[in-house]
Amino acid sequence: xxxxxxxxxxxxxxxxxxxxxxxxxxxxxxxxxxxxxxxxxxxxxxxxxxxxxxxxxxxxxxxxxxxxxxxxxxxxxxxxxxxxxxxxxxxxxxxxxxxxxxxxxxxxxxxxxxxxxxxxxxxxxxxxxxxxxxxxxxxxxxxxxxxxxxxxxxxxxxxxxxxxxxxxxxxxxxxxxxxxxxxxxxxxxxxxxxxxxxxxxxxxxxxxxxxxxxxxxxxxxxxxxxxxxxxxxxxxxxxxxxxxxxxxxxxxxxxxxxxxxxxxxxxxxxxxxxxxxxxxxxxxxxxxxxxxxxxxxxxxxxxxxxxxxxxxxxxxxxxxxxxxxxxxxxxxxxxxxxxxxxxxxxxxx
Length: 349
Ligand code: 1HN
Hints:
This protein is α+β, with helices and mostly antiparallel strands. The protein has a single domain, classed as Jelly Rolls, CATH 2.60.120.10. It is 17% helix and 32% strand. The strands form 5 sheets. The protein has a 6-stranded antiparallel beta sheet. Strands 2-3-10-5-8-12 form a 6-stranded antiparallel beta sheet. It has a 5-stranded antiparallel beta sheet with strand order 7-6-9-4-11. The two termini are 14 Å apart. The structure holds 1-hydroxynaphthalene-2-carboxylic acid.
């Protein structure tokens, strides 16, 4: 409810003297500072792969991965254009790496996730270990880890990047460093981390020094198989179908400290119950097609599309065929701060 504040010439004159003292009256801004429910600038939006892929490929003719450092078209939320963000706290982009290219080694305090949208056989190297990437794989580059990408396959690869850039900017905690050479030296064979930490085992005596999962590639074949086996029990969640989060096997917590990542299965003809939560969420469609009704907007999606559901906006998904949806949000941050909320079903506001 808006609080009505008087406006008199005396008040106006008083206000005019405050800025030079570094002061401002709270009562004129209180209702916009503290809203009864979230009033996000984030808008529901969709990036149709058929429309954006040609532009991503065109960027590949105009600039090399090396020249660009990272050749990415940023997915900018229409409610925050020019701000390099898809939600208030998260950045997303579509990155292209062509056969034979290298995206040079660097590190930053921002955490990054890659979700592979198209292609097969390019690699990301993280702190001396390469992983070959396939469609649907979820790959992590932890905060402050050296990483470079390369494509030794004969096809282009495009992935969705998700980074906590706006969040880190807000906290004034950005650090960035370029590695002196193009690639960081390899010290472990490909597949080492998954075998060591991602097989229901942990080396005895292993102690993690970071909150990020030591597994840095969660292959889609395994993720899909997990959901397909769960499917046999028919224990569908009315709001999510079957939805699993990627976890850090050392702690059981989210795989990354600032971003939750999930894969969900909605079987053909499944219609989810209305749902809302405070974590604005980015979805990438891996398989299938359907619609999401987000607030008043209906988004029709199919494979490789990206769409965003803003904080506290009611959403319902309808699956036309068997659908596998990847998603990410800032939920771990909100949970640790005691801020995360959800509302299942349509009641309340
Ligand atoms: C970055 O390092 C990558 O490593 C992608 O692929 C996107 C956006 C802003 C800053 C750093 C990458 C990025 C980025």
